[in-house]
Specification:
The protein is an alpha+beta fold. The protein has one domain: Jelly Rolls (Sandwich). The chain contains 4 helices and 16 strands. The strands form 4 sheets. Strands 3, 5, 6, 8, 13, 14, 15 and 16 form an 8-stranded antiparallel beta sheet that branches. The longest helix is centred in the last third of the chain and has 18 residues.
Length: 253
């Protein structure tokens, strides 16, 4: 397939076909994102990439890395009050959440791990992405809130907070290969690292995972989500560049 006389990446074509997307703007944006992530050496480190394009749950559920409609392909399963539109997905801070079907148990300390989001503002204290296996020492969480703070938690390690006037943009939690876990706030370009391991076994969801139920639901707009092996400082900066180009420059959201 071609777009503007340029051949599309086969992985972009596979996603667009599965999601039923033919829109020219989205097609170019997805193709550019795939090519950028490959050029930056991030593509092969990622397990989950939700670009949340197409404006409906039917297209938002697909994982760009593996666009099969299967739990094993980590396609998102939406629950409760989740709004779908061209801006991405937005929870209702009451009962809206989604399950990635991805478990940190597949990760290992040597490869590290990271959860990154490109988002709009929210106004409550909900959790954006989390994993909770039923005990505090199995927690993995990341959040940000309007005029409040950014934070992350891994296992029993205390929360790390960064105050910010806005929660819009790129942020996440990251464990570099064979290194410490840390919170990465790209808005303030600050990082703080602490040592902990990813040991939880339940899947990562939007909200707080507690057995079969969720909680601490967010009302934030999620535009893109990436779950990967740990990224180094250069890769984190490049991921920010790629997601900013994808969401702001190419999709104007």
């Amino acid at each position: 397939m071609m777009a503007g006389g340029v051949p599309l990446d086969p992985d972009a074509v596979a996603f667009l076909t599965a999601a039923g997307i033919a829109d020219a703007t989205i097609t170019i944006a997805i193709d550019t994102l795939v090519k950028d992530l490959k050029n930056y050496g991030i593509w092969n480190k990622a397990y989950v990439i939700y670009p949340f394009v197409g404006g409906a749950a039917a297209s938002h559920k697909y994982n760009l890395k593996d666009p099969r409609d299967l739990d094993g392909a980590f396609r998102a399963v939406f629950n409760g009050g989740v709004t779908h539109n061209s801006a991405g997905i937005t929870g209702n801070a009451i009962n809206g959440w989604y399950d990635t079907k991805f478990s940190p148990s597949v990760l290992n300390l040597a490869a590290g791990a990271g959860m990154f989001l490109f988002t709009g503002n929210n106004t409550n204290t909900g959790i954006d992405l989390s994993n909770f296996g039923g005990a505090p020492n199995n927690a993995l969480q990341v959040w940000a809130r309007l005029s409040g703070d950014f934070g992350a938690r891994c296992n029993s390690i205390p929360v790390f907070n960064v105050l910010s006037a806005t929660s819009k943009g790129f942020f996440g939690t990251n464990r570099e290969p064979n290194n410490n876990v840390g919170f990465y706030n790209i808005l303030n370009n600050t990082e703080s690292f602490f040592s902990a391991a990813f040991t939880a076994t339940s899947s990562i969801i939007s909200g707080l995972k507690n057995g079969p139920n969720g909680g601490f639901f967010s009302d934030r707009n999620h535009q893109t989500v990436v779950i990967s092996n740990g990224l180094n400082s250069t890769e984190r900066a490049n991921l920010r560049t790629a997601l900013n180009k994808f969401n702001v420059t190419n999709l104007s959201r």
